[in-house]
Design goal:
By secondary structure, the chain is of the alpha/beta class. The protein is built from seven helices and ten strands. The protein folds into two domains: about 60 residues, TTHA1013/TTHA0281-like (2-Layer Sandwich), CATH 3.30.2390; about 140 residues, no CATH class. Helices cover about 25% and strands about 25% of the residues.
């Protein structure tokens, strides 16, 4: 299946090395001592984990960040693609917000993973609902962050954040669906933010793709 997309998550565990997982490959569990080693062996590791021949592999890096002055941890993720610089910029701005007690309260009020951490995905306006939801397991919720706030609604904020999740089916809960917002899997992050700012979906609950 040449058109299948496999998202590979490389996690930096500091002195414990790097781990590798994938929402599309539940049997893929592995690691290496360094980032270079895991990148050098990536093709073989992914193939051993069951990736279909010819699949498009999208690599994401993620790291744990402990919020200053607390014991709360976050996971910050960004894709190694043509927009890597913009994603890294969003991550840097996010780190700055987390260090500022006056700014971080709102962004830390977002959803948590089942393991207790908050997942921040560094995004760009052209990222689609489909591409973003492929990074998540069913039931997972993340906060999308982007640094294009300078051009959005006159700027004034270092980043814009939006809660986003993925589910296999519609269920009762405090969240908005794509149909509620008039969106589809091909809609972009820019479309999602416009729908939120126009009042089509709530400012306070996640938008969930299902």
């Amino acid at each position: 299946m040449a058109d299948q997309v496999v998202h590979v998550l490389l996690t930096d565990y500091g002195q414990y090395g790097w781990g590798i997982t994938s929402p599309q490959l539940p049997e893929l569990i592995g690691g290496r001592d360094s980032y270079q080693e895991i990148r050098d062996d990536l093709k073989d590791i992914v193939a051993f984990g069951g990736a279909p021949e010819g699949a498009q592999v999208v690599v994401h890096r993620q790291m744990y960040v402990v919020v200053p002055g607390s014991d709360e941890a976050c996971i910050v993720r960004f894709a190694n693609d043509e927009y890597e610089f913009d994603r890294f910029e969003a991550g840097m701005r996010l780190t700055g917000v987390l260090k500022d007690a006056g700014q971080r309260a709102q962004i830390m009020a977002g959803p948590k993973l089942a393991t207790g951490e908050r997942l921040f995905i560094c995004a760009v306006p052209s990222d689609t609902v489909r591409w973003l939801s492929e990074q998540l397991l069913p039931g997972e919720v993340a906060s999308l962050v982007t640094s294009f706030a300078d051009e959005w609604l006159g700027g004034g904020k270092p980043i814009i954040e939006m809660p986003f999740g993925y589910a296999l089916k519609r269920s009762d809960g405090d969240w908005s669906s794509l149909s509620d917002a008039g969106l589809t899997e091909d809609s972009t992050l820019a479309d999602m933010l416009m729908a939120r700012d126009s009042g089509k979906i709530s400012q306070d609950v996640p938008l969930v793709a299902c």
